[in-house]
Each structure stands twice: as structure tokens, then as C-alpha cells.
Amino acid sequence: MEKILLKNIDKPESHKIESYIKNGGYNAVREALKLGPDDIIQRVKDSGIRGRGGAGFPTGLKWSFIPKDPTLDKYLCCNADEGEPGTFKDRAIMDNDPHLLLEGMMITSYAIGAAVGYIYIRGEFEFGAKRLEAAIDEAYREGYLGKNIFGSEFSLDMYVHRGAGAYICGEETALLESLEGGRGQPRKKPPFPALAGLYGKPTVINNVETLACVPAIIEKGVEWFKSTGTEKSPGPKIFGVSGHVKKPGLYELPMGTTLRELIYEHCGGMRSDKPLKAVIPGGVSAPLLVPEDLDTTMDFEAMGAKGTMLGSGAVIVMEEGTCMVKVAYITNRFFSHESCGKCTPCREGTIWITKILKRLEEDRGRPGDIDLLEELCGNIFGRTFCPLGDGAVMALRGAITHFRDEFLNHAAHKGCTA
Amino acid sequence: MATVIINGKTSSVKDGTLILDAARDAGVEIPTFCYQADLMGVGSCRMCLVEIEGQKKLQPSCITPVMDGMSIQTETPQILKARQGVLEFFLSNHALDCPVCDKGGECELQDMVYKHGPVEGRYAESKHRFHEKDYILSPVIVKNSNRCVQCLRCVRVCDEVVGRNVLASLGRGHEQEETSFLRSRLDCDHCGNCIEVCPVGCFMRLPYRYKSRPWDLKGTDTICPYCATGCRMVVEERDGEALRARAQIGVGINSETLCARGRFGFDFINDPRRLTTPLVKKFGKLEPATWSEALDFISEKLSGIEGERIGGLASPVLTNEELYSFQKLMRSTLGSPNIDSSTRWDPVVVENYIAASAMTSGGLSVFDAAEADTLFVAGTQLSDENPIVDYIARRISAERGTRIIVASVRDMKLDSSAGLSIRHLPGGLGALMKAAALSLYESKKDKLQGFAGVERFEGLSADVLLGEAGVSSDELAAITKRFETSATVALTAGTDLLRQSCGILALGLLSDVLKALGKEVLILPILDRANQRGAWEMGVLPGLAPGYRTASKRGLGTKEMIEAAAAGGIDAMYVIGEDPVGENPSGVSAFDALSKLSFILVQDTFLTDTAAMADCVLPGAFPAEKDGTFTNQEGRVQAMRRLKAPPGDARAYLAIIASVSGVLSSTTGVCTKTNSMQVFNEIRKEAPAYAGVSLEFNNRKNKLNKLDNREALAGASEGGFTPVAMTSCAPAAEQRGEGEFYLITGNTLFHSGRLSHSSPTLTGLQKGAALELSEADASALGLSSGEEARVQGNDYEVTLPVRLRKGMRDGVVYIPEFFPGVSVERFFTTGVSLPVVKVKKS
């Protein structure tokens, strides 16, 4: 398969504009400027591309919600707050091929009528932020950003904004709140950002990988894009594999690749040839899968049908011998630490669950702990303000469903039986 | 309109109504924590989740608007379980120290758990503790974060209503704490609204701490006695001691809000120095006496004095009934036309102010003013003097986009909500309004052919006016542009207009021009004494009888009475609740003048300077110790109720006036009514504007939070009166020389009038007066904050600590009114409204 997302990252000086142009960069945006906004939106719609940040919302549809009123200011925000544990795909693009993201943002801004684009980058990505800033400087220098780009009427300014270290700011409304200088907490929806987003203006928020797909859709065409992947989840996807495999890393593969192929062919199989115990297929919010599920295809529909989700495509592979109570504890500790504090169930519930799991993990369980955990999950799920609490619950529920005995053994002070 | 089905019952509500409000309308109660009427919805507590047909997830009813045809369930097993779940989460890290919590017994969390909560706790982990001991956030606020339920009402009220932003959330997740930065007080207003909105015992009032349980308190509805906003509040006592004052959501124009004076300033009522028995002067010394001894003494002394040689002065913090009876006693029983209700304002200026601010045409709701397209706040330091009007303006302008223009000499809190803030020269407000009127007139001259009173523009020049106002032509253009693009314009008429009478004529001119341009003009008087408007409407003015009718005979005003006393023109004075000697408003020494009188009768609650030199002193009662009504600045007539008896032998002023009237005149007995309702019914007849006023609403909690009880607004006064023409508008300030400053005065956030200085809490918040001046002036004088400066002028001198103020105009100093030991009135010369003083480093 021809790579489009990771095609440049191994080339020398791949982050420089010269290298990007040499490899055919910035042609798509020239072409896009000839097409006109409506045409671009239509093409993106036709391509069927779905958001790569985790929710899988059709990108073209999202863009089409933006009001056409030319007197309204509009904004594009790139969600580069890649914070889901196990996910490291956007980072590779920003560190090594920043101009791909910039080109995608230029086309998107033109399509939706935005004159300003923001890249909200995770605070810890200092290197990536520097690379992006350098890339933006290069683009201004070449006249690719600023006033009247390529002699057209289109003008665009772009800024990098570094987050302050909160997972919740990956949620789009919390991202906007943080970008405006407020406290990183989600806003109520509706109104959706497409109508009232940044500074109350229509705003599109897209993931880095999504925006990086846009130049290829314009340049290579809709049909080309749809030729990879599945019917409902077309195109290529970066899978970031970590855990107990021989070759962890980033793999750009068609949507719909099976887990088995990913782990045993591309990643070279299990690290110490122990049997596989569990796989988290899409970042820690996604309920885990077990060996029986290895032939499931990695796309939004098939993962959904298995009760889990494709998420960001961050695959965490665990071998036999891994303590699932510890996995659950570490995961929930993350969520309770990152809970923003806005709504009651998530704020109070995740920390309660974490405290119970910590006891279990330390063999200080009590009778009824597992039932209590499940009840608490029920009191959180579907009751929270944003999906953070839901994610925490889904992950824990998955672990308890598949490995109940392990949890019960911990609760009964029998030690870890993994 | 949208049709909704709530629990199977169909009802029709306005589009965009929140599900919560629609349910409450339909009589279905949904429990909430973070929801607070008038604050922006956040939907974070998840108590109010409801089931909507066709939606998988439960939805928060406090932020979800209804849709036509929506079917909503509020009591399904799933919802009840969700509520239990949320309450269990609240309790998991809640301190649960109810036995030592001040909120115990009136805590929303207690009530909610009792009603909806789990019966058993399952949380067996360690609780998160923010701190071990409660900490003090301000001299009146104490904080315990371990009890917090994170509803953020405190943060939102501080931001959206009070406009201070002292409180915010620090930390994240379960470590999130609502407090001030570094737990310091910063620029807190000490208003305690965070305490009022807190559903649990997280914010508590320090003065009330550990004093009582709510069920041991007895409370009654009353009205705040400080400014003329007319905030309704409940004062609560235990064993005869008034312990706290609180506001109630949905009651009064203030709803749950009060300012520091209202919430914490009520403790003057417990002052041990209060008068408890009548005093009669025997051998040059005031001695305790019985009521009958005192009344006999009064009868003996007063009956020998001719009516016209008696002066009467009553405080504008008396009730309408007391003021009405007093003027009747003066005019009918004693036959004296000399009556006034202020030591500060000139009666002629007051008459012109009443006419210019359209008070004769009846009440104007502050909500109408705040909902105008443009609100021009002028002549008042609104944020300090009438804080609740500032809250209302801030909240409504954020909600509806009212454009606020602030025109003042000093900066004020409302600036942050104002699109335009103008700093004019002291005494320059009249010139500024004239310039605005002139500019509007000139730009639309063709449309304004035949404008009545065009001669008022004669000789006016924009440049000269702008020079007098100290305002640039760009600023003027910004003001007029806002006026031009507004359909309704609200103008405030603050007390500075009473100090600098030029502004009154300018206000009339500006209002006339705006009306001629087809705009609706609303004029909102902003006054600083609780019943000042009531006092005028009851005819406690030398030229006006009750109901704004011209008095049959014009008498003397306060200053004239004092001058007459000095010159032997009057023989006796009857003073209720005022202290002319302490305030010394006249050019002559009030002490020397009053010493010449043969008889002084004082009714007061404290032994004031005037009372100390009186021949007879009768002990009176405060609000909460008597029934009656106040008319606030809007013209809203509101009733208050008696909570407890006044201390010792003290009596309500109304009863005292009746007794005095009884002993003076056995035949007529005209004002011997002691029941305030009877007197009010008489007022309804004498002042037809009050005929239709309803006092009903006042003690009824309004479920839908409609704060605006228009049936309480006074109607238009019939007949009307023509004010005595002001001989000349007060002259513009004399030019100031080197080292000289213009002096301005007014109230502060914590003190207005004498009353607040008897409140230990308010004195704790601000003890002494300070001289405020700009940073540039201070550095030119070599002064820094806290150092002392000597202020001299008009043969008076005072030494004050200095406070630097950003946003103050250079060349201006400010000294607050009515601080003990600082008679700022002494700097004012009769006829000169803007004194010039010298300031030196002390």
C-alpha cells in the first residue's frame, strides 16, 4: 500500500519545507485553491473519511455544518493534544512531517472559510511544538501562510498553542475553553463548536491525522482514498502498537486490517513468544479484547460490534502473566488523576474506583468489592458531562467481564493468579 | 410555544424554556445543586437528570431546553437510582461533620440525602481533606473546603453578579477547591454572596460562627436600612440578640444577593450604648426619666412656643408612616412649616431634582432601566453606594447586552461591565450632559425643528463644555453614538446631582433632547438613604406636602433652621434620627446655633452630639423593631415587620410621635395613630400615588423568581408641583492653584451615614476614613499608601491616612462622608459645590 501519512518521516531533514516540497508537498493546496470551498467539502464528504481522533465522526459532514455566512469569523483548531495512553501517532507527524499537517490545515481552512488556524498541542510535546513553530515560520517565509496565499484571495494565519498538561483538553470543548485562556473543562453541547466554538464563532476541530489525510484526498482523489480500507471506514490508518510485541511502533495500514495480521505479521509476534492474554485496541478507554477476538478487523464498525472501539488506533498488547487488576488500577488511576472535576460522577466516582482497585492490587480487598465496582460503574456510565468518565468505566467493565476470576482472587486475598 | 409532556401531563411553555423550569411550572420538583436562577447554567452536578423519550442517556434538565412534543419523565426507577448514585458520590468525600457545621439544619445536602439519598454509606476509603482547620478568607467569611460539593455557585456569583472574580477553582478533579488565589482576600467586597449561595457549610459567616442553630433562630422580613436600593432581607435573632441577616432567593429585587453593609451591618441593633430610657435635662444634665415625666416636660416646654418658631428635622431612614405622622405633627399640631429630612441637601435643589428625575410620574423599575438599550450611569459611585443596582446592571447587561456607559470622577467596579467609561472632572457632569445634549441637537437640527426650550442651548459651546467636563471630543462622540443607536435610554440620577446642582438642569435638557429624537427615556434616581424618596413623598420638605403637592406655607430647610437658630429666628427644634451638630452642615457652627435655642427635643437610638445637648431625649427603635414601609429609590413601596421589641423602654418612633402629639393637643389628636397600617391607609388617601400600591407580595416567596413586583411601584402624583427655580446653578469650581485639589465626597462600600459606624462588623472592615488620590498626585506630594496627609480648606483641617487609587483623575482628592472625627462637610462653603483644598504631607 502506498503510504500517505508516514511517507516522509524517515527521509533526511523531513521536517524542513525544502524536503517536503521536494517530495511533492504543497501541490494539493494549490490544486485545492482552484477547486473552491464547496467542491473541497464535497470531495472530503465523498471520500467517506472519518475522524481519526477516536470518535470517527465523518469529517466532511462536520465541515459542512459551518455556516456559509462570509461576515462571520470562523476558526480551525487542530487537536494535537494527543493524550490517550498508548497513542503516539500524531506526534510522529508533527515531529517529522509538520508541513503535511500545515498543508492539511491550509486546505481545511480554505474549505470552511477560516482565516486563522490554531494547533493546540499537548504541553509535553515541546519538541513537536518547536518543530511546528519552525515549520510555520518557514511557510510564512515562503509566502504559503499570511496574506493572499499563492496569489489567491485566501489568507491564513496559524498559531501553535501549548496545553498545560490536562488530558481533558483533548475533548474538543475543553480544548476551546483552554485555548481561550479559561480552565480546561468541557462546555455544554449544544451549541456545538460548528456553530459556537472558539470565542463563540463557528469552529472546526480536527485531529492531526485527519488533517494529514486531507492533502492526499485532494491530490490523489476520492476514488483512490476509498480504494483502501473498508466501505464504511475508508482510507489508511496509523496503528500505534505498544506492549509485549517484538516490534512495537507505528504502522500505516488500511482500515480493516485484522488484529492478528497487525500483531503477528507487522509487529513480528509476541515479545517472548508467550501466548497473548489481552489487547487494548484503541487507547485505554477502549474495552480490551481477548485472543478469541484476534480476527476482528480494525475499523469503526467491527470494533463497535465487539463492544469496544477503534479509538485512536493505539493498540496495547499484553502477554500471559500480565496482572489485569494492576492494568485496571493503572488505567483508572490515570482517569481519576485526569478527571477535570466538573461533574460529580466522574470526579468522585473515578477516585473511589481507583482507591478500591489499589486495595485489590495490594491484596487488601474486601468481600463485595467487585460488586461495588460494578455498581459504581453503573452510577458513572452515561451520567457524566463528557465521555471521560464513560471511558474509564468501559475499560474497567471490559477487564472485569473477561478476567472476573482474577479480580475475585485479589479480593479474596489469594494473591495474583495471573 | 412548545408543548411538552412531563410525567404524562401535557403543558405548554415558551420556546427555549429549560426542562427544569417547565417542570417546576407544572408543579414537578426536580432536585438540583449547581443550578441557581440568574446564574449561567453549567449542568455539572448531575442531580437534575431526567429521561427524555427517544434519548438513550439521561439529560441534565437545568441546561437542556424543551423541544416541541418532548416527553419527559422525572421519577423513573433509573432516575431515582441516578440521584442516589450522585448523592452517594457527594457524600463519599464530604466531611460529614454536621454536628459542628453552621449549616446543619438548613443544608441542601442534608435535605437532599434525607429525601432522595442512599440510607447506607458504602464508602470505606480515606476521605480527601483539603485542610485540617477551617480558614479565614475575609474578616467576614470562613471556609471549610472539606464540605464542598463543587457546584461552583460561589465562583459564578462572584464573577457574574458581584463582578469581583475573587473566587475560582484551584486544582483538578477531586482535588479541585473553590477559593481565592493563595487563599488570600485580594480585592474581595466582603459581600458574603458566596455564603448565601453555598448549599452546604463550605462558606460561612464569621460573625455568626457557632452562635446558633437555624431552628433556634426567629426571623422576620425587613428592608436593609442602608442605601435606597430597598433590598429585602430576613433578620434573625436568638434570645433578643440579632444574629444574622440573609437574603432569600426569589424575594425582593435583590433576590439572594446583598452587599457587605446589608448582610453584615445589622449588628448595630445589638449595640449596648443604645438609648433605653427617656432622658430629661435637669440642672443642666440629662437624667433618666419615665415616659410620662418626659411627655409632661415636652408639653410644658413646647406649648409656650409659637409654631413658626419651631424647626423639625427627621431622618430619611424613618418609615413612611413615621415621616408622614411627623410632618402632620409639625404642620397641623404645632403649626410649623419648618420641616426637612436631610442635613445635606438644599430643599430647592431637591425640588428641582424631583422634577428632573420624573419622580412625580411614579415608580420606575430598576429592571426596566437595566434592560434599556443604553444605561448611562452618572452622578453616583454606583458600585460602592448602591451595590445591588451594580449587580443587577452587570447581570442583565451580560444577559441582554445592555450597553453601559459609566461617567464618574473615580473608577468603579461597574467599569468592567461597561463598554465605555468616562472620567470627567469633579463638578463636570452637568457640562458633560449638556455637551451630549448639544451634540445630539446639532446633528439632528433639521429633525428637531420646534424643539421646546431651544433657548437652553443659547450661549453653549461644545468646546467650553468639554473643557469644563474634562472630557475629550472623541469620548463625547462615543457617548452620543450610543445614544443615537438606542431606542430606550436609561439615565441614572445620582446624589452627585444634589451636590452639584448644575447637573439637574443638564439632566432635564439631555432627557428632553432624547425624547424629541423619539427615544424612550427612563430616569432612575440613585439615592443613598433607605427612605429618602419616601421622606420627600411624605412631604418632609419645607416646600412640599405629602404626595408632591405644594405646601400651603413654605418653611425653612435644615441649613436655614440652623442659621435662624443662630440669629434667634427660632426657639425650638424637634429632631428625629438626625444629628445636625455632629454633621454640622452649615457655615455657622451648629453647636453654637443650637445652644441658643430654648428647647431641643431629640428622638434617637443613640446619644448623638445633638442628643447630648438636647433638653429631652426619647429612645427610639430601628427597623426590625417596628412595622412600617419604605419607599426605595425606584418608588417601590415595601413593608417590613417587627422582629423583636426595642431594648428597655425604647419605643417605635411612630408611637413616640403619637404620644407627643397626644400631650400637645387634646382636641385635635390628629396623628395619634400608632398602628402603621392605619397610618398607611391614611397615606393612601393623602398621597394618591400610594392609593393603588400593593404591599402584598413582599413577604411571599416568588416561586418563579420574578423579582419585579410592579404592583408595589408608586403611581403618578396628581397635580404635580412647580419647583422653585434655582437662583443660579452652582458656579463652576474656582481654579485650583499649586498644591491644591478639588475635593469630592460620598459613601464607601462599607459605610453610609452614621448607622454603619455602630456596626462592629462594618467598623472591622473599614475603621477610619482615608484620603484617596491618584498615584501621580501622591508621588508628586511625596506620599505613599498608608502615610498621613494634612488637608486644609475653608478654615478646617484634618489629618488622614492616604490611599492610592488607580483610575482616579489627577488633581482630585476624595474623603468619605460621615466618618467620626472627619467632618468633610466643613470643607464645603454654602453656594460652592466644589471645594478646593490644600494637601500636604503630614
Break the fold down into its secondary structure elements and pairings.
The complex is a heterodimer of chains A (about 425) and B (about 850).
Chain A (H helix, E strand, L loop, with lengths): L16 H6 L4 H9 L1 H11 L11 H6 L10 E6 L8 H8 L1 H15 L3 E6 L4 H16 L15 E6 L9 H8 L23 E5 H13 L1 H6 L8 E8 L5 E6 L4 H8 L9 E5 L19 H6 L8 E6 L4 H15 L5 H18 L7 H12 L6 H16 L1 H8 L7
Parallel strand pairs in A: 1-2, 1-4, 2-3, 5-8
Antiparallel strand pairs in A: 5-6, 7-8
Chain B lengths: L1 E5 L2 E5 L5 H7 L23 E4 L6 E2 L10 E3 L3 H16 L15 H9 L18 E4 L2 E3 L9 H10 L4 E4 L6 E4 L12 H5 L5 E3 L12 E6 L8 E7 L2 E6 L13 H5 L14 E4 L2 E4 L2 H12 L7 E5 L5 H14 L5 E2 L6 H10 L9 H5 L3 E5 L3 H4 L1 H14 L2 E6 L11 E4 L5 H15 L18 H8 L3 H12 L3 E6 L2 H4 L2 H15 L3 E6 L6 H6 L6 E2 L3 E2 L7 H9 L5 E5 L3 H4 L6 H6 L3 E6 L4 H4 L3 E4 L8 E4 L5 E4 L12 H12 L11 H11 L53 E5 L15 H6 L5 E3 L1 H6 L7 E6 L2 E9 L7 E3 L21 E6 L1
Parallel strand pairs in B: 1-5, 16-17, 16-25, 18-19, 18-21, 19-20, 21-22, 25-26, 26-27, 30-34, 31-33
Antiparallel strand pairs in B: 1-2, 3-4, 3-5, 6-7, 7-10, 8-9, 11-12, 12-13, 14-15, 14-27, 23-24, 28-29, 30-35, 31-34, 32-33, 32-35
Note down, in words, how this protein is organized.
- Chain A has three domains: 17-226, NADH-ubiquinone oxidoreductase 51kDa subunit (Rossmann fold); 236-319, Ubiquitin-like (UB roll) (Roll); 324-413, NADH-ubiquinone oxidoreductase 51kDa subunit, iron-sulphur binding domain (de novo design (two linked rop proteins), Up-down Bundle).
- Chain A is built from 17 helices and eight strands.
- Chain A has helices at residues 17-22, 27-35, 37-47, 59-64, 89-96, 98-112, 126-141, 172-179, 208-220, 222-227, 259-266, 300-305, 324-338, 344-361, 369-380, 387-402, 404-411, and strands at 75-80, 116-121, 157-162, 203-207, 236-243, 249-254, 276-280, 314-319.
- The radius of gyration of chain A is 22 Å and the shape is globular.
- The two termini of chain A are 39 Å apart.
- By secondary structure, chain B is an alpha/beta fold.
- In chain B, 27% of the residues lie in helices and 19% in strands.
- Among the domains of chain B are: 2-75, Ubiquitin-like (UB roll) (Roll); 279-342 and 531-694, Rossmann fold, CATH 3.40.50.740; 350-525, 3-Layer(aba) Sandwich (Dimethylsulfoxide Reductase, domain 2); 740-841, Barwin-like endoglucanases.
- Chain B is built from 26 helices and 35 strands.
- Chain B starts with a strand and ends with a strand.
- Chain A binds chain B through residues 166, 183, 188, 336-345, 347-352, 355-356, 359, 366, 372, 378-380, 382-385, and chain B through 41-47, 49, 56-58, 63, 81-82, 85-86, 88-90, 92-93, 122-126, 128, 149-150, 168-169, 171-176.
